[in-house]
Write a structure and sequence with these properties.
There is one protein chain. The chain is α/β, with parallel strands linked by helices. It folds into four domains: 1-76 and 286-294 and 307-329, no CATH class; 77-256, Glycoside hydrolase, family 3, N-terminal domain (TIM Barrel, Alpha-Beta Barrel); 360-579, 3-Layer(aba) Sandwich (Rossmann fold); 627-735, Immunoglobulin-like (Sandwich). The chain contains 21 helices and 26 strands. Strand 15 (490-496), helix 19 (517-525) and strand 16 (531-536) form a beta-alpha-beta unit. The N and C termini lie far apart (52 Å). The chain binds beta-D-glucopyranose (BGC). The site of beta-D-glucopyranose has 6 residues, from loops.
Length: 736
């Protein structure tokens, strides 16, 4: 039967109650199975956080015991791998993957994740995050592609295509979800879910571009954000959800609220006094599916029956939901079948390793790297809290940070920490590898989240609250590490953050190394033994002293299950690193925001007590070879940049050619420059290639105060080179 007719027929048979239920997404992990079964009988639209037999049972109830037998769809957060399944493949965090500047890696990671998620029967993945992390104090920095709208859009679109494949009804395709719409990463003071003090002009200019690309890539669902813009919560922001997303951007898929945001309109944001108002406003603003606010059901029914809300609003939302269900083919196949046996298979693990390799960023190398095992290295001291801590390496949204209630076992998947990676690389070399913990990353225990399955862990967190924990108790461990290191030829020190310093609720006011890590570093750096520091963290940290006094610094972010192997391969030169920073590193916390594409100021250095420039800028990253740029040209007719790149070193490598555009004079201020294109180029020693990159119109567009988007004719500067830093770029001036 024709799909539209099928949906029209179905809607015409639905009661208001059934429409309200179809708009609801119920969290099985919160309500429990008895309540979930009841919701399934009422004809609820979707469940989240269910796995295995629970899903089968709930789908059976929906298909057999609900009046209209509309199948439900199941959702999950598998944001860098299907992390809540103990056997699934764990990729680097989104931020770490962004460091690869590699769309193929993002696409493959999403394809693998979709296959694993679908093999568990699930239809819908709440990924990717397209928010920008311009203030790294934000707890969810690791979930983003970093600070730049262009990079986020390119990688986000690649992931969406990877999740959704060519056809949503394929066994291994799942719905992607572009989130969080919109401006969520820009919350005041980087406090998760706080108000965003920005204008819609800025929204259009800075934050919509990745979402535009997501929608062009066919993203089937969009999640509205927790926060608010200038006092209007996104959950009721009609201008954002209807005006911009639907009417202007042409989005025709499903919108879903974030977790319990309809309730938050009453309890937190206080723009509604009761569930009737909250539910009516949320539906009217354009939310199709309401995540986790079960009170919505009764309230919205009452709003329609009393005439305060037009039933057509519900019809429209239900139409979007049923359309997506038709595209998924749930009537024919109520649960995804995926690819049996594929969860955690060798091919998927290989993809995770490739992604980890892509995400390694070499930030400093005074010549010590790569280590040559043949050259008189007798002993390597591997030290530091993150050298052998898989929880720190995985990052957020894995089994540890969101354990499935009731299951207390450790994940059952192979992994390689940095220590293990170093051992692999030195196995048959005769080099002795010794390990010492050094100190803990933190004992802050600020975690207020839901460690439902492991109460003793939560208790420990509270017990070790930062205010009470005396870090100096750790001096003996530091001394022990130093004593072990004294007889070493090389120290490899892994510092960073851990799982209770990132994610929702976990913003940071201080970006220095936490706990006794700075003390550990100082003690080790005074030994005058060559020191390689590896940063395993969810975000950039303010580490000027570490950078100054280390002989080499590698940034790994959260490299996933094989992150340690990729870093060890880099240290021993098996891998020539090609990662580039997707986010700038501040000197000190007070310097943030320090993202590269700010408006020009005119009082030069902005602080008297800190350099104007960041510690490391967007796009930076070294390799074991050098690249020389020449012959930059721009063809205005085709908007194509071409530039010659030569590998002038003696090792093969991959350069990430970066193109930036500056609008010289415009009617509103514009950024000093914006990334407008990039390309990864493999070059043998001595080899040159001409790289051509066609720029989109978007690269030249501005948003005027009246919110219209135009290209104003005039002069533009096109930059090409190795990073966003002026000294790394060639430039040419053009008139359009
Ligand atoms: C997060 C979303 C996530 C949702 C469902 C929320 O707390 O903000 O990103 O998709 O929970 O788990």
């Amino acid at each position: 039967m024709d799909q539209n007719k099928f949906i029209d027929d179905l809607i015409s048979q639905m009661t208001v109650e059934e429409k309200a239920a179809q708009m609801l997404q119920v969290p099985v992990s919160v309500v429990g199975m008895d309540a979930a079964r009841e919701w399934a009988r009422k004809g609820v639209g979707s469940f989240l956080n269910a796995l295995g037999s629970e899903m089968e049972e709930l789908q059976k109830v929906s298909c057999e015991e609900s009046r209209l037998k509309v199948p439900v769809i199941f959702g999950i957060d598998a944001v860098h791998g299907h992390g809540l399944n103990r056997k699934a493949t764990i990729f680097p965090s989104q931020l770490a993957m962004a460091a690869s500047w590699n769309k193929d890696i993002a696409h493959k990671a999403a394809e693998v994740t979709a296959t694993e998620v679908a093999t568990d029967g699930i239809h819908w993945n709440f990924s990717p995050v397209l928010c920008l992390a311009r203030d790294p104090r934000w707890g969810r920095t690791d979930e983003t592609f970093g600070e730049d709208k262009y990079l986020a859009g390119e990688l986000g679109a690649a992931m969406i295509e990877g999740y959704q494949g060519d056809d949503l009804s394929d066994d291994t395709s799942v719905l992607a979800c572009a989130k969080h719409f919109i401006g969520y990463g820009e919350a005041t003071g980087a406090r998760d879910s706080y108000d965003t003090e920005i204008t819609f002009r800025k929204i259009r200019d800075e934050f919509l571009p990745p979402f535009r690309k997501a929608i062009d890539a066919g993203c089937a669902t969009v999640m509205s954000a927790y926060g608010s813009i200038d006092g209007t919560p996104l959950t009721v922001n009609k201008k954002a959800l209807r005006g911009i997303l639907r009417d202007e951007m042409g989005f025709d898929g499903v919108t879903v609220t974030d977790w319990d945001t309809v309730n938050a309109l009453i309890t937190r944001q206080r723009v509604c006094g009761n569930h009737g108002d909250a539910s009516r406003l949320a539906a009217d603003a354009g939310n199709d599916m309401i995540m986790c606010t079960m009170e919505y059901y009764d309230a919205v029914i009452e709003e329609v029956k009393s005439g305060r809300l037009d039933e057509a609003v519900l019809d429209e939302a239900v139409r979007h939901i049923l359309t997506v269900k038709c595209r998924l083919g749930v009537w024919e196949k109520p649960l995804k079948t995926g690819k049996p046996g594929s969860i955690g298979c060798d091919e998927h693990h290989e993809a995770a390793l490739e992604a980890a390799r892509g995400s390694v960023v070499l930030l400093k190398n005074d010549g010590i790297l790569p280590l040559d095992p043949g050259k008189k290295i007798r002993k390597i001291a591997v030290i530091g809290p993150n050298a052998d801590d898989i929880r720190a390496q995985y990052g957020d949204w894995t089994y540890f940070t969101h354990p499935v209630p009731g299951i207390e076992k450790e994940p059952e998947r192979p992994y390689v920490t940095l220590l293990e990676g170093i051992r692999e690389q030195t196995e048959s070399t005769g080099i002795k590898v010794e390990y010492s913990y050094g100190c803990s990353v933190n004992r802050m225990g600020y975690y207020k989240g839901n460690f439902a399955g492991i109460p003793e862990f939560m208790e420990q967190c509270y017990k070790d609250n930062a205010h009470r924990y005396d870090s100096y108790k750790e001096m003996p461990y530091i001394n022990e590490a130093a004593a072990m290191a004294r007889s070493a030829d090389i120290i490899i020190l892994a510092l960073g953050d851990n799982y209770n310093q990132h994610g929702e609720y976990n913003d940071r006011a201080d970006l220095r190394l936490s706990g006794m890590q700075e003390a550990l570093f100082r003690v080790l750096s005074t030994l005058h033994i060559p020191l390689i520091t590896v940063l395993i963290s969810s975000k950039p940290l303010a580490i000027p002293e570490v950078v100054k006094k280390s002989d080499a610094v590698i940034c790994a972010f959260n490299g996933g299950m094989y992150g340690g192997r990729a870093v060890a391969e880099t240290i021993f030169g098996k891998l020539n690193p090609s990662g580039r920073l997707p986010i700038s590193f501040p000197y000190t916390t007070g310097q943030v925001p320090v993202y590269y594409n700010q408006f020009p100021g005119w009082h030069e250095g902005r602080y008297v007590d800190c350099p104007e420039k960041p510690l490391f800028a967007f796009g930076e990253g070294l390799s074991y070879t050098w690249y020389e740029y020449s012959d930059l040209k721009f063809d205005a007719a085709s908007k194509t940049v071409s530039v010659n790149v030569k590998n002038t070193g003696d090792k093969a490598g991959t350069e990430v050619v970066q193109i930036y555009v500056e609008d010289v004079v415009s009617s509103v201020m514009t950024a000093v420059k914006n990334l407008a294109g990039f390309s990864r180029v493999e070059l043998q020693p001595g080899e040159s290639k001409e790289v051509s990159i066609r720029l989109d119109d978007e690269a030249f567009m501005i948003t005027r105060p009246d919110e219209t988007r135009v290209i104003e004719p005039g002069e533009f500067v096109i930059y090409a080179g190795h990073s966003s830093k002026d000294e790394d770029l060639l430039k040419v001036s053009v008139t359009l």
